[in-house]
């Protein structure tokens, strides 16, 4: 059950990123979708969705790999010294 929840947590941002790519592609071909009054606004929304989804998935993978000690030393958390 826990793995299914983790999969859903990753699938939703992935789908939003894919929607963002679709909106950016449609902007390049001049296809305007109904919630947007301008092509530039559609492209900006698509870029934000794509960047947000990619950042979420990348952060999730980085967090998981840090817990398992599978990252290079430059990506490891710095230890705080008192």
Question: Radius of gyration over alpha carbons?
Answer: 18 Å
Low-confidence stretches: none
Order of SSEs: HH
Number of domains: 1
Portion of residues within helices: 55-70%
Tell me what portion of residues adopts beta-strand conformation.
under 5%
* DSSP strand tally: 0
Number of separate helices: 2
Cα separation of the termini: 41 Å
Mean pLDDT: 93
Global geometry? elongated
Helix/strand-derived category reads: mainly alpha
- Biggest β-sheet: count, sense, barrel? none
Can you put this structure into words, describing what you see?
The longest helix is centred in the middle third of the chain and has 29 residues. The protein is built from two helices and no strands. The protein is elongated and about 55 Å long. α1 packs antiparallel against α2. The chain has one domain. The model has no long low-confidence stretch (mean pLDDT 93). It is mainly α and 82 residues long.
